[in-house]
Automatic annotation (TrEMBL):
This is Diacylglycerol kinase, alpha 80kDa. Residues 32-82 form the Phorbol-ester/DAG-type domain. It comes from Neovison vison. Pfam families: C1_1, DAGK_cat. It comes from the Eukaryota. GO terms for molecular function: ATP-dependent diacylglycerol kinase activity; metal ion binding. Keywords: Kinase, Metal-binding, Transferase, Zinc.
Length: 292
């Protein structure tokens, strides 16, 4: 929700009302606006086009999904339905994610504290959630290596969690790529964005091979740090330099899918009595050429 407070004010802050999934399958369907006070960075109302005067207090409202910014007085003129804005092709709105099975013996509580406990214990692993994507969209699965590019990876992770649904953005240092691939396994038309260097991209591609997905989704690269030859060859640039991530997502939406050979190289040593290190198993991403 992008709500910012002092450390000493955190315990007094209002509880976040933003949910990242529908509470049951009967609640999926049309997504509604979710308005949060403040956060109007553009300073202009998307309804009346007049300036939103920002003082020392929280002024105006912004939708956490389509990122529209409006005056308080313009709220009544806005419809309830949210189309997720300019990034609708990539976003998985909460109305597209629902819990498949609640744990036996557990009852859904009405208090915010009990609800948060339910979310943390039973739904954070993604195995308890299912995806029913919006038609004619291409939900984006984002993998971020926070260690890549110094502090860049951490900032990119936070920004994508704000631009998209946090449930489609995965920190590779926590559980690796497997939970994300399982979560998106049966999502038609999905795409993958890998934020990291060539080593991170190779890790994701190898995991996709092992996952035996029904359809292998196309993979784009946001190059972080050094060692980004693959990103250069695919025309994503040699490194991320703080460009607007929203624009990068729009470029990804319009990008062309190309096929890339991946070779499994097995070296069979000659029979010898000399002791030596075992021959490593190699995967080569043939995105340019192999020479001798």
């Amino acid at each position: 929700c992008k709500y910012v407070v002092h450390d000493q004010c955190a315990m007094k802050a209002l509880p976040c009302e933003v949910s990242t999934y529908a509470k049951s399958r009967k609640d999926i369907g049309v997504q509604s606006h979710v308005w949060v006070r403040g956060g109007c960075e553009s300073g202009r109302c998307d309804r009346c086009q007049k300036k939103i005067r920002i003082y020392h207090s929280l002024v105006g409202l912004h939708c956490v999904w389509c990122h529209l910014e409006i005056h308080d007085d313009c709220l009544q003129a806005m419809g309830h339905e949210c189309d997720c804005g300019l990034l609708r092709d990539h976003i998985l709105p909460p109305s597209s994610i629902y819990p498949s099975v609640l744990a036996s013996g557990q009852e859904r509580k009405t208090s915010k504290t009990s609800q948060k406990t339910m979310d943390d214990l039973h739904l954070s692993t993604f195995e308890a959630l299912r995806i029913d994507p919006v038609s004619n969209t291409h939900p984006l699965l984002v993998f971020v290596n926070p260690k890549s590019g110094g502090k860049q990876g951490e900032r990119v992770l936070w920004k994508f969690q704000y631009l998209l649904n946090p449930r489609q953005v995965f920190n590779l240092l926590k559980d690796g790529p497997e939970p994300g691939l399982r979560f998106f396994r049966d999502v038609p038309g999905c795409r993958i964005l890998v934020c990291g260097g060539d080593g991170t991209v190779g890790w994701i591609l190898e995991t996709i091979d092992k996952a035996n997905m029904p359809v292998v989704p196309p993979v784009a690269v946001l190059p972080l740090g050094t060692g980004n030859d693959l990103a250069r060859c695919l025309r994503w640039g040699g490194g991320y330099e703080g460009q607007n991530l929203g624009k990068i997502l729009k470029d990804l939406e319009m990008s062309k899918v190309v096929h890339m050979d991946r070779w499994s190289v097995e070296v069979i040593p000659q029979q010898t009595e000399e002791k030596s290190d075992p021959v490593p198993f190699q995967i080569i991403n043939n995105y340019f050429s192999i020479g001798v």
